[in-house]
């Protein structure tokens, strides 16, 4: 408040005449000045002071002293970040602690946009399998503790099952849940019904996505055992009509990798990029070289998601691919009951694999947040711009002796890994590993 009063006084002082010329000239000058400048200036100053006062009073949470990495805005520096009313209101080198209701010291930690997990299955329920099932996971059970503020469901539902998914899971989760809609009416189930082409309805898929523009980010094709390209083409057509990405999951054993990539447009996403399983050709050939048509697809804009899962990430693919320039665009985990309890573990563990393979911290944060947001055309997410929603991950890098395991039970050793210290969703702290924001018990 004190500083604001000073501003007002200084401003009024500036308006006082200091030139003692002829009275008439002065009167004319003052009249003119008042009319043209003074009134609008005072109004402007009042607005500036009011907004400054409001900003100062309304900082609800100040993250102070962290290494702020915001790839969208090309920031990698020690910066404070202020939050009010669920949004980022200020990012600056030094925001006084006195202006905030709550200050959390995050020095020595990384302040990142909230992480976006590109590939999850979160239509959790009590049935067998993924659809309203026990293989899917509740978003709030795994996301906040991994610094994730947004998960994207990989087509666990289609136009018929999406409403139930929305009411049971999406609307009730603290974690933001977005989704690709499967071209199969029932989504990703374990039975053959999902392969019924008659129910792969472009119009109904398009309508469902259009009716849920804040949630549905694209169309997914996955699991089809037949040879016909109709399912793929219908999914692709729906995505094209919507101007949204097509998300291609594997489990398409009769389609060659080359043909899949040929059918994909720039901006479409292929997941399980580094898998080594019988149902799909690998991206790296027997001589350890990334296949030229794979590199060509990436060059023309096809996006590669890790999609780790239980069988989708092998070091004998990922390491040579990384060395030869085939970097993932996003770190989707293919989160489900099996993957989270095997080599995948968490999205932070997947990011840590890349950290120990040689990817830089800013490049990892970029793929975990901003690049992921861009690939689903949600550029309101994955960044720390002033005015954006305050979805934030505060991460530490823990040093030690660690082992990282792939889907084939092969291991690399590492000495660093990411940990989520604090997760903020819409301005609210939803995860605090070491009680950074808690009150001290000892008085
Ligand atoms: Zn999946």
What report would you give on this structure?
This protein is an alpha/beta fold and 443 residues long. It has two domains: 34 residues, no CATH class; 282 residues, TIM Barrel. The protein contains twelve helices and 16 strands. The strands form two sheets. Strands 1, 2, 3, 4, 5, 14, 15 and 16 form an eight-stranded mixed β-sheet that branches. The radius of gyration is 26 Å and the shape is globular. It starts with a helix and ends in an 11-residue tail after the last strand. Bound molecules: zinc ion.
Short description:
This protein has 443 residues and is of the alpha/beta class. The chain is built from twelve helices and 16 strands. The strands form two sheets. Strands 1, 2, 3, 4, 5, 14, 15 and 16 form an eight-stranded mixed sheet that branches.
Bound molecules: zinc ion
The CATH homologous superfamily of the largest domain corresponds to Metal-dependent hydrolases
Point out poorly predicted stretches.
1-23, 46-57
What's the CATH class of the largest domain, please? Answer: Alpha Beta
Number of strands: 16
The chain-level mean pLDDT equals 89
CA radius of gyration: 26 Å
Helix count equals: 12
Distance between the termini: 30 Å
Q: What percentage of residues falls in helices of 4 or more residues?
A: 25-40%
What's the overall geometry? Answer: globular
By CATH, the topology of the largest domain is TIM Barrel
Broad structural category: alpha/beta
Topology, please?
Blueprint: H1 2-15, H2 23-58, E1 61-70, E2 75-84, E3 87-92, E4 103-105, E5 110-113, E6 115-120, E7 124-127, H3 139-142, E8 148-158, H4 162-168, E9 176-182, H5 202-211, E10 216-221, H6 230-242, E11 246-248, H7 257-262, E12 269-270, H8 292-299, E13 303-304, H9 315-323, H10 347-357, H11 361-368, H12 370-375, E14 392-405, E15 411-425, E16 428-432
Parallel strand pairs: 1-4, 1-5, 6-8, 8-9, 9-10, 10-11, 11-12, 12-13
Antiparallel strand pairs: 1-2, 2-3, 5-14, 14-15, 15-16
Helix pairs in contact: 1-2, 5-6
The structure holds zinc ion.
């Amino acid at each position: 408040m004190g500083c604001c009063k000073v501003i007002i006084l200084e401003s009024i002082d500036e308006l006082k005449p200091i030139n003692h010329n002829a009275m008439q000239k002065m009167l004319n000058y003052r009249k003119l000045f008042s009319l043209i400048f003074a009134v609008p200036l005072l109004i402007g100053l009042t607005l500036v002071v009011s907004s400054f006062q409001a900003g100062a009073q309304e900082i609800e949470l100040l993250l102070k002293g962290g290494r702020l990495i915001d790839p969208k805005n090309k920031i990698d520096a020690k910066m404070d970040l202020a939050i009010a009313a669920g949004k980022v209101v200020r990012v600056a080198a030094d925001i006084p602690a006195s202006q905030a209701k709550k200050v959390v010291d995050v020095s020595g930690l990384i302040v990142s946009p909230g992480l976006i997990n590109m590939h999850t299955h979160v239509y959790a329920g009590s049935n067998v399998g993924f659809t309203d099932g026990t293989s899917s996971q509740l978003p709030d059970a795994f996301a906040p503790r991994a610094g994730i503020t947004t998960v994207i469901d990989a087509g666990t539902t289609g136009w018929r099952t999406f409403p139930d998914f929305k009411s049971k899971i999406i609307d009730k989760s603290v974690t933001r849940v977005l989704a690709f809609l499967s071209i199969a009416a029932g989504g990703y189930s374990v039975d053959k019904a999902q392969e019924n082409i008659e129910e792969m309805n472009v119009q109904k898929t398009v309508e469902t996505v259009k009716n849920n523009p804040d949630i549905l980010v694209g169309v997914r094709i996955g699991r089809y055992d037949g040879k016909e390209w109709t399912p793929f083409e219908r999914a692709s057509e729906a995505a094209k009509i919507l101007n949204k990405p097509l998300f291609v999951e594997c489990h398409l054993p009769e389609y060659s990798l080359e043909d899949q990539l040929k059918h994909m447009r720039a901006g479409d996403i292929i997941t399980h990029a580094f898998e080594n399983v019988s149902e799909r050709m690998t991206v790296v050939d027997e001589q350890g070289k990334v296949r030229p048509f794979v590199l060509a697809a990436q060059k023309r804009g096809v996006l590669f998601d890790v999609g780790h899962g239980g069988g989708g990430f092998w070091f004998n693919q990922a390491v040579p691919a990384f060395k030869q320039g085939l970097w993932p665009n996003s770190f989707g985990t293919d989160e489900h009951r099996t993957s989270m309890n095997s080599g995948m573990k968490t999205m932070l563990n997947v990011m840590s694999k890349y950290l120990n393979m040689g990817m830089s911290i800013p490049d990892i944060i970029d793929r975990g947040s901003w690049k992921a947001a861009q690939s689903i055309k949600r550029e309101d997410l994955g960044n720390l711009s002033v005015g954006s929603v305050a979805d934030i991950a505060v991460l530490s890098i823990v040093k030690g002796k660690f082992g990282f395991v792939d889907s084939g039970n092969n291991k690399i050793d590492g000495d660093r890994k990411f940990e989520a210290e604090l997760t903020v969703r819409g301005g609210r702290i939803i995860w605090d590993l070491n009680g950074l924001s808690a009150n001290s018990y000892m008085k």
